[in-house]
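Comment thread on ticket #2218

A.B. wrote:
> Attaching the input chain for the structure job we discussed in standup.
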Amino acid sequence: MKRILVIVLIAVILSVLIDLPLHRSQGDFVWSNILGFFALFGLIGCVALILISKWLGHHWLQRKEDYYDRNDGNE
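C.D. wrote:
> Ran it. Output below, let me know if you need it in another format.
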């Protein structure tokens, strides 16, 4: 867990550092002027997409190991 936290922290810091030379006011919204907002928004969106897809795959797509070996009384 500590390793994952360190990796996420490094990714956040790199995202903000990469955004530093590229940052300029881009719109009329308040969040357009926040340094690193879109980099962090993209990172959070990617992490959320990965976690949701893993949860969906685990609870909906995967079957138990004995899925085909079960005797449901139909045979």
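A.B. wrote:
> Thanks. Noting for the ticket: Residues 2-24+32-61 form one domain.
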